[in-house]
Amino acid sequence: MLQVFSAGTPVSARDSGYDLQNGWDWYHVPGTTASHYPIEKRTRKAVLALRSQHGVAQRRTDRNYNSKTFVGGASLGEHGLFVQDLEALPFTAPTDLQGRKTYFFVGDRVLALGSAIRGGTSEDRTHTTIFQTRLDGPDTATWLDGRTLTGLDLAERKPAGTSAAMADSVGNSYFLASSTADLVLSRGLQRSMSEDYEPTEGAYAQAYLDHGTRPAGDSYEYVLIPADEGARKLQELAADPESYYRAIRADSIHLVHFPGQRVTGYAFYETVETPAGQLVRSASIPATVMVQEQDGSVLLAASVPDIGWQSDRRVLARGSGHAATLYARQKAKLHALELVLRGNWCPTDAPAGTETEAIGEDTKVTLLCTDGLSTRIALVSGDACR
To answer: I need a labelling partner for 269 at 20 to 30 A (CA). Which of 43, 140, 213, 249 fits?
Structure first.
């Protein structure tokens, strides 16, 4: 999920658009890619009966675990990135929804990338929610491509492959650069339930990507700008997106260069080689890397966002506290991450255990990573450190 708290004095959830007790759609949480279920009262007994009917292994209704372990990120100064190899868990019926989602927090905005979005349940549509914000009333405006939208009976759909510039009702703006799914923007009175199943309602605006039922490999790319008064930054971004970022997005890697900050982020979902011209050629295991260029030198931060615990599918199916018996006594794995950098580089500031080795015109840097934390190193070009 990606919720922004940026409005109110002091800043509050309600002023930032989230009024969970009044009409909140629990299946449109901002930032999520998920099946969209109807909001209705479900007893634990009924949920378990449906799971048994459909052959679902999970028997806990409060918490279950999936089999993916690649989740976390890296940070470098004021910049960072977050990755998630998404694997959905069944609610009342089997699901094989999966996807790869990366958030790049660079400068004063967030770039959201998604790829390899596929699967799901046989009946429910998959949505990626961009925002859901409360409206004080029908005249509380949202914006789409320069148009002011008001009222509580509106739904607009933009076809896949088109860009869109949007602003929500609390001052955040969004630029959808590309998507293989249609964009839906709606305004209306929503009916929901509280945690105690009491009926609630409230006025909301929503924007989401409609991947449909069982997408076969969808992707998206959008930028969130928090607290963008008058949507001025949005207008600048929409006029020239490449001034902020240049993305190379594939199922195996999310790679983005941010020219203004001279920062490049790498999300290695797989151990693939990057295109020519990128500093980091490859990673020996799935990892996250951030690099900031300086004159003749670079700062590099990397992490292996995998604690490395040994798992057991039987415990995963039991869920909740059962996992504590498997994980609580395990130490986090110490990963030896090997990064191959294009060019000759040598360290000027490196943590203990770091090794560098020249391999022809490349440099192999071995970093020790554990607990999902970032390991940082400073390097200079080979000519400067001879």
So the answer is: 213
Are residues 283 and 339 in contact, defined by beta-carbon separation less than 8 angstroms? yes
pLDDT tens digits, 153-203: 999 999 999 999 999 999 999 999 999 999 999 999 999 999 889 999 999
Please state whether 161 falls in left (phi above 0), alpha (psi between -120 and 50) or beta. left
The secondary structure of residue 69, as a DSSP letter, is -
In this predicted model, what pLDDT tens digit does every residue of 27-73 receive, in sequence order? 999 999 999 999 999 999 999 999 999 999 888 888 888 889 999 99
The tokens describing 24, both together, are 């909140």
Q: Residue 273 has which token pair?
A: 């080689």
Q: Go through the chain and tell me how many residues it has.
A: 386
Distance CA 154, CA 149 (A): 8
| Residue among 333, 301, 262 at smallest CA distance from 69 | 333
Its pTM stands at 0.96
The H or E element containing residue 100 is strand 98-106
* Rounded distance between C-alpha atoms, residue 156 and residue 149, angstroms: 10
pLDDT in tens, 194-207: 988 999 999 999 99
- Three-state secondary structure of 188-207: EEEEEECCCCCEEEEEEEEE
d(CA 207, CA 28): 9
Residue 86: closest CA among 78, 94, 77, 97: 97
Give the type of residue at 44.
R
Going by C-alpha positions, the residue among 96, 97, 127, 124 that lies closest to residue 30 is: 127
**Other Cβ atoms closer than 10 A to 95:** 21
Pairing verdict, β 173-179 and 153-158:
unpaired
CA distance 294 to 252: 28
Check whether the bond before 351 is cis (ω within 30° of 0): no
